Amino acid sequence: MVTNVEKIRNKIKRAPKGTLFILADFSHLNIPYNTLKDTIRKFVKKRELIKVFQGIYKKPNFNKLLQREVPASPHEIAVAYARKNGWKIIPSRDIALNRLGLTTQVPNAYEYKSSGPTRSIVLNNDQIVKFKAGLAREIDIDSTSALVIEAFKALGENNVTKNDLKTIKSKLSGKQLKQLKKDSTLSRIWIKDLIIRMEKM
Length: 201
Hints:
The protein is of the alpha+beta class. It has helices at residues 4-14, 33-45, 74-85, 93-99, 136-139, 143-155, 162-171, 174-183, 189-200; strands at 20-22, 50-53, 56-58, 62-63, 68-69, 89-91, 109-114, 119-122, 128-133. A four-stranded mixed sheet has the order 6-7-9-8. A three-stranded antiparallel sheet has the order 1-3-2, covered by helices on one side. Helix 4 packs across helix 6, helix 6 crosses helix 8 and helix 7 (162-171) packs across helix 9. It is elongated and about 60 Å long. The termini are far apart.
C-alpha cells in the first residue's frame, strides 16, 4: 500500500525542477488536510521542498554551474498566489510590457489586475507584488487579449510605435489576433484602432 508520504513524493518527483506547488495541487491524493500540511512541513525541513511564500512551495532547482538554487521569479509566485486564492490575474504596466518583449527593464514592483481584492505582498527578497482589483471587462476575457490591452494602456495612446505593433503581432497567432479584436469591443477607441492597424500590417 502506498503511504501518504510516498503519494506526495511521487507527485513532486514527476514535476519539473523549480515547479511551484500549493496545497490544492495535492487534493486529488485524498489525504486529510492536517496530514498533508504536516507532511509538506516535513518535506520543507528535509529540503525536498522550499517554502517561497505562505502556502507556496517550490521543488528545488539547483544550478550546478552557478552552484546556487535558482529562485522562483516574482511572476511565478504571483501566478501561484492567484491560484491559491482562486483569482484570475493579468500582468499590467511594466509587467505587461515585459511579458510581450516590449521592455527588458526589471520593475521595482510587479503589478497585476486581479479578479480578487486589491492587495500587496512582500516576497522574501523584499520585492513587492501588487494585485489591483480589475473590472470584469478587463479580467474576464482571453488572457492574451487582456495582456495586449494592458500593454497598450501602459504605453499610452500616443506612445505606441510601429515597432511595438510589429513586436506584439509577432507574439500572436492568427487565432489570438482574431480573439483580441473580438475582446476589444469594450475597450477605448484608440486601442481598437491600434488593433486594426496591427491586423493590417
